[in-house]
Design a protein that fits this description.
Radius of gyration: 19 Å
Structural class: mainly beta
Number of strands: 33
Number of helices: 1
């Protein structure tokens, strides 16, 4: 199926992502922000159902910077991470959320696959040069870097004064958010491209060793692990003492957050790369089989009449806003579904030059 092995996960993580990006949508104040596979950051007015702005505003002829990470809205600024896979470099753009005008950009010496995280006046991002960058969120100046031993495709997560992230060097790191000093690290048996979830003093994250881990957020000590039939890439979702996480073995799992015991599993028709969302007791899951599923979060039974087929793999995280679910697919469309019924509300193209 086109992407999974999401590129055999880029040659077992040795190469680079392809498919020209898989940026997920983010919605705030009636505007949807998403990165396109044509190398643009797009802002859509959801009320008028039309594009407000694109960045860069002019077409470059052929896109060079591609967006894998989701745009992040913080205050009146949109932070968009990208990568030029021909040059082997990355960039973080800070854009005016209303107009799309560039405020600053920060170049990295490796492509950026994950999202930006912002806490206070610092923007954190990992790059394929193996470094985690802490950038001044206001002016784009560098505050510090932390070097891992391999590419970072994971999105950093800030909890209090600690930044948690993972690397393809098999290691999960906890570092001081202000100065970049390492607090602890935990080594798994495989590269880690997934993003951690920090909840109730526990770090939850999956790896390519087929294991999903729960670690003490203060010490890094393992509390439990759960073994699936294939790798974990997607960011987990936590709610009601349950962890929901998809695997490349085609299953979405519901695990007890305290013990790691499996509560239920649901098989889809393809590997699961995207983070699910939860709306009113319905867990909505996108799969590389080109379908979106609506499941009962408590039992794993289907709540929709059946999966909704969009005919294209879903690699990007989903987004929920009220009763609507937003799905960015690899066919260059963002779809809007009713979360309760799965009925498609509308869709719009993102292949903007």
């Amino acid at each position: 199926m086109l992407v999974v092995g999401a590129l055999a996960l880029a040659g077992c993580f040795g190469g680079e992502p392809s498919e020209l990006g898989w940026s997920g949508p983010v919605v705030s104040n009636g505007t949807l922000y998403v990165g396109s596979r044509t190398g643009k950051v797009l802002a859509f007015d959801l009320n008028e159902r039309k594009m407000k702005w694109k960045f860069p505003a002019q077409s470059s002829g052929s896109a060079r910077v591609f967006f894998y990470g989701r745009p992040l809205l913080s205050g009146d600024t949109v932070y968009a991470p990208g990568g030029d896979f021909q040059k082997g470099t990355g960039v973080v753009y800070a854009l005016n959320a209303v107009s799309g005008a560039q405020r600053w950009e920060y170049p990295t010496s490796g492509e950026i696959v994950g999202d930006v995280a912002v806490s206070g006046d610092i923007a954190y991002v990992g790059a394929s040069d193996g470094k985690l960058y802490a950038i001044d969120a206001v002016n784009g100046g560098l505050k510090w870097t932390f070097a891992s031993q391999a590419k970072i495709w994971s999105t950093p997560v800030v909890d209090g004064q600690t930044v948690y992230f993972a690397s393809l060097d098999h290691i999960i790191y906890a570092i001081n958010a202000q100065n970049g000093n390492k607090l602890w690290s935990f080594t798994t048996q495989g590269p880690i491209a997934s993003t951690p979830l920090v909840m109730n003093g526990v770090v939850y994250i999956g790896a390519s060793d087929n294991n999903f881990y729960a670690l003490d957020a203060t010490t890094g000590q393992e509390k439990w692990h759960f073994t699936a039939g294939n790798w974990f890439w997607t960011e987990p979702l936590g709610a009601n003492n349950t962890i929901y996480v998809g695997s490349l073995d085609h299953n979405v799992y519901a695990l007890d957050a305290t013990t790691g015991k499996e509560q239920w599993r649901f098989p889809t028709g393809g590997s699961i790369h995207s983070m699910p969302v939860l709306v009113g007791g319905i867990l909505i899951v996108g799969s590389n089989d080109g379908k979106v599923y609506g499941l009962d979060a408590a039992t794993g039974n289907e709540r929709w009449t059946g999966p909704v087929s969009i005919g294209s793999p879903v690699l990007a995280p989903l987004f929920a806003d009220g009763n609507n679910v937003y799905v960015s697919a690899q066919n260059d469309y963002v779809y809007v579904f009713d979360a309760k019924s799965g009925a498609q509300q509308w869709a719009f193209p993102t292949n903007v030059n």
